[in-house]
Amino acid sequence: MLTTNFHPTGRHFLQIPGPSPVPDRILRAISSPTIDHRGPEFGALGLKVLADVQKIFKTRHPVMIYPASGTGAWEAALSNVLQAGDHVLMYETGHFAFLWNKLANQLGLKSEVISLPGLEGWRNGVQADLIEQRLKADSGHSIKAVCVVHNETSTGVTSDIAAVRRAIDAAKHPALLLVDTISGLASADYRHDEWGVDVTISGSQKGLMLPPGISFNALSPRAIEVSQKGGMARSYWAWGEMIEMNKNGYWPSTPNTNLLYGLSEACDMLLAEGLDQVFARHQRWAAGVRAAVHAWGLPIQCADPAVYSPILTGVMTPEGVDADAVRKVIHQRFDCSLGTGLGKVKGRMFRIGHLGDSNDLTLIATVAGCEMGLKLSGVALQGSGVQAIMDHFTSHPGGLAKA
Ligand code: PLP
Q1: Which atom of ligand 1 is nearest to the CA of 203?
Q2: What are the pocket residues of ligand 1 if the criterion is a CB atom closer than 6 Å to any ligand atom?
Q3: Is it the case that residue 216 has pLDDT exceeding 50?
């Protein structure tokens, strides 16, 4: 039998922390015919999605939409406001912060990384006071930007972005604030303008419930001004022409038309539900999944309950148990994909995504798959996670999503 043709019955459980499952409504929107990206119909679509994403980022200022993955939007952000040789302050909260730093170095930036010993930095959110101290010591203002990750997808830890802004202000430092919320947007509370972020980077394949393929830079007036006066040699990523053409709903090069249909639909769904309800829904799911992990008696990668991620939970496996082997069993036996441990925590933890187009029963079944897989892998569990998540959901009614 040809195994390449084999597809298991039922729906695959895509429980990685993005790409997340794409709702049928969005898939249908994406399948509409591709239209002329210079024609009048497209201009209306462009204006609609640009206005919608401003509401999602909570900004009154321009949001750039690129046909690229999140990595492209990282590069776009850095190359528009910094020059090779510029000094940037980064904070290592996990593997994605690590990769952003690597990209910054590849662009010729001189990064300085706040990295805590062992796994401390990878189990806690950004300590804004460390940023404040470092900026206060930089009396010559050589640091041009501070870069932090809002929701660290590799660990399941969030960071308080408003506190980072306060730290920069308390140090009376002019550094720009650049924030990656690739996995936080449209799942966790995020406020670009209110939190004084200069460039927010995000992507389509997580809370927006779209396939991978578009990414974003939300800008502040100051970021735009800095980019007009400087930045690196750039063309595709340059904001200037894009800002001008976006005013009429168009882009300088061919935009990802079909994903923009999907984006329009996703924004309609999220805004009809209401962002506060979207955030509450994620918090409730996350608490249910954590109740299950606690019942198993396994540690959660995030060590500080104040910054648990609403999007994913990192589950640490006991010493001597390879988390990837557990994931493999769960995938092979129950057709459920979980996130692997990345970088420093490879083999030590797996990640359960609980974001986007999900519901209580999907998450209960996911926890059941994990519980069976852990038992099959010989992990002694203290109690039933399935019972715990059911108890959590029945005692914390959340209501069905309206969209
Ligand atoms: N930053 C974060 C926080 C991420 O979660 C990801 C991807 O998962 C990236 C950056 C990289 O984005 P991409 O893989 O879309 O290029």
Answers
A1: 15
A2: 18, 69-71, 96, 149, 153, 180, 182-183, 203, 212
A3: yes
